[in-house]
Amino acid sequence: MRVGVPAEVKSDEYRVALTPAGANELARRGHDVWIEHDAGVGASYPDDAYERVGAHIGDAEAAWGCDLVLKVKEPQREEYGFLRDEQILFTYLHLAAEPDVAGALKRAGTTAIAYETVEDDRGRLPLLAPMSEVAGRLSVQAGARHLEAHEGGRGVLLGGVAGVAPGSVVVIGGGIVGINAAQVAIGMQAHVAILDIDLDRLRELELVLGGRVTLLHSTQLAIDEVVQRADLVVGAVLVPGARAPRLVSRELVSQMKPGSVIVDVAVDQGGCVETARPTTHSDPTYVVDDVIHYCVANMPGAVPVTSTGALTSATLPHVLALADHGLEGALERLPGLVPGINVRDGAIPNEAVAEALG
Predict the structure, then answer these.
(1) What φ, ψ does residue 193 adopt, rounded to 5°?
(2) Active site residue 94
């Protein structure tokens, strides 16, 4: 099979969908791998690193012209012309927040498999997990930076010092993003609260985090109370394939402390904060009611070396199955790919995505 890896064109996106190690595995199995010129440079993989393992270097048309196209982010408007039928696109899509992309894929007849809705045999999301880990850890790092006075924040050191109370971090959602955010905040010696609707998950977090955080059942009243007191709020809510629920209202934002910070990691699924809108690494923040909002939709793109390695490690078994056996063969061998199919034959087979798109 011909496997193509275009360069990412989304603003401030430096990741690449395949490492040279991944390209080597495909080439060893007899597949033709086409990498767009300089696609890996942002992740410290020059063209010759791919050529040494048997991959070919070409232009965007050569990469997009393959049977299986691997990307990191959803196709951008300038890439719609490369979409076609008899093409499998494997990438993060987040179509619940990207109806225009869904429309372009449907019109082209492309079979689009979304990393974020592929499941394993336990119903978990193995291809979303590595980027959720990265985004969770970055969220507190970014929040701590923007709490500094010279960034417009209220001038709070999350860890505090002797005689001064630590900052308050509230994490809404106890999934992979949430636990990674909490671990970094704990490491900074902040006071941390996590809210989740799943009591079993809260019990798991109690064991994992060893009582170092406040664990709260997520109700609207509980959210209202802790968010008003927070220095940093991390939105870490996920409903697979669907739009994130709005849990922090505009009114609640207006009641937060001036100079506090919101980092909405869920913004690529529409955001769990009413005032959230996507931003970029070049222009990451804006202010609403004296509260700083950091809502970068591709947060892991800030650390492309780490992110690219983590992504390829997770996706490679699925990529090899698709390349070796084609779509139907891969679906038989890896049933978790079935919920990953977001667009096929001009339709939206994933129920949660279809409902989100109306």
Answers:
(1) -125, 135
(2) yes
